[in-house]
Design goal:
alpha+beta, C8orf32 fold, two-stranded parallel sheet
């Protein structure tokens, strides 16, 4: 993920009223924000990304089993590669190309695989974060009754968002898939609150 994406999101976030960093097990959006660079063109190519579609009822136990399995499968099947390596473009959100991709490509494949397995679309969301090393990163969120869980190409296990060490900047709206919201939360959230 390019640094310009996170910088544009951070510039927009700087005027946000501070929010509790670890308030509960679900991320709480504060307001709407523009989608990250690359997301709108991905929506145009992949109808499943930006349109809610019905999924069956699924218990937390079934959902957790499914997201753990798919997180492992996709992480094992895809080799890390930059957008420039796979597409000759600086920032391009797509499914992995020739089984290669960067963080948002992993997250997109996880979302598609979960949707194809019947996971409800209104329980999945792409999210832009700052990782533990201060780098820009994209992960997939799965909302269960017990909280928002992170499917991550940098981690073998699925974790509750507050256990990742990531600072969450913005996330796809669970109910209006083409929209994004500020979800400023995590260890470095205070640095971006304008206080």
């Amino acid at each position: 993920m390019r640094i310009s994406l996170a910088i544009s999101i951070l510039a927009t976030i700087l005027t946000i009223v501070p929010q509790e960093s670890f308030a509960g097990s679900m991320l709480r959006p504060s307001r709407s924000i523009g989608a990250p660079i690359g997301f709108p063109s991905a929506c145009a190519r992949y109808a499943w990304l930006c349109h809610n579609r019905a999924g069956g009822q699924i218990s937390d136990d079934q959902a957790m089993s499914m997201i753990k399995r798919i997180n492992r499968q996709v992480n094992a099947a895809v080799t890390p590669a930059t957008d420039f390596t796979t597409t000759r473009k600086a920032e391009y959100w797509s499914l992995p190309i020739a089984n290669k991709g960067d963080c948002e490509d992993y997250a997109l494949l996880k979302m598609k695989t979960l949707l194809d397995a019947g996971f409800p679309s209104n329980r999945l969301s792409m999210s832009v974060v700052i990782d533990r090393n201060g780098g820009n990163h994209v992960v997939l969120l799965a909302r269960l009754e017990s909280g928002d869980y992170v499917l991550d190409n940098l981690a073998g296990s699925v974790k509750l968002w507050s256990s990742t060490g990531y600072t969450f900047l913005a996330s796809q709206n669970f109910n209006s898939k083409s929209s994004w919201q500020v979800t400023l939360a995590g260890p470095r959230a205070g640095q971006f609150s304008g206080t």
